[in-house]
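Report of the visiting student (M.T.), summer placement. My assignment was to run the structure pipeline on a short list of targets and document each run. The first record concerns Mannopine transport system permease protein.
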Amino acid sequence: MNIVASHRRQGPLAAIIRPRHASRYAPLTSWLLAFPLVATFATGFLYPLSKLVALSFANGAESYVRLLEDFLYVRVMTTTVATAAAVTVFCILLGYPVAFAMTRLRGKAALITAACVFIPLWTSVLIRSYAWIVLLQRNGLVNDFLQSAGLSDQPLKLLYTLGTVVMGMTHILLPFAILPIYATLRTLPPDFARAAANLGAGPFRTFFSITLPLSLPGLFAGAILCFVLALGFYITPALIGGPGSMLMATLIGQQTTVLLDWPFAAALSTVLLAVALLIVFLFRRALSLSKGFHSVH
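After the run finished, the structure tokens were exported:
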């Protein structure tokens, strides 16, 4: 009774700050807790983004008209989206078995597998890109092996191709596909697989009927991470890619550092952002229609 009376004497301010339930915060307290995140998001993303869009219209719609009229820029955008899609597909195809194995392995095997996933993730992207140069250059390890084994009479051109860019980006982004899928697979109760086996389902039917549908949220998260990161990848395409494998990030960097055409670079960045948001929305819509977000873990 004394506690209730003391709360009543604190006035209307206490009613605003004090939560109505032990598991909930009052509106003012919730806004105060969320304010640092909201302020960081507004100053670090929304404000620069608005300035970028405004800069792209510094000369009116001239930059966007130029982008659409010149086939070179359309081809670079198409190549960027296709490359990002290919990298995402390879990351999912290679990452899903690894994530699935990580949930089944125990002891030293699990530790070694986790180390193979995390150690490259902790290594600089620049170092991993240069590692591909060491492997694939004309006097690199791969060409030396092919010539010593009699499989090639002269060094092959393995660097500065679009295929090399896809391979290098897949290697770098692979952990971003493995970890979300692993986190989802780890939460799946093993009773589901046992129940399916008791009902006569084999391993393949159990996987495609139970495990794969329930792991779609993690697969979606990994695919989105890989796709968005691949759209804006700069270091790896710049180091191991050639003129025929130029991507949007490289083109934007060229416009800002070499040609100093900031409005056109802003227009390219805005279009790239719009394409990324559109594809992410379509991907999410398609997955939600397939009941991927309504899986019961």
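Residues 1-33 form one domain. The first helix runs from residue 2 to 8. I thank the supervising group for their guidance throughout the placement.
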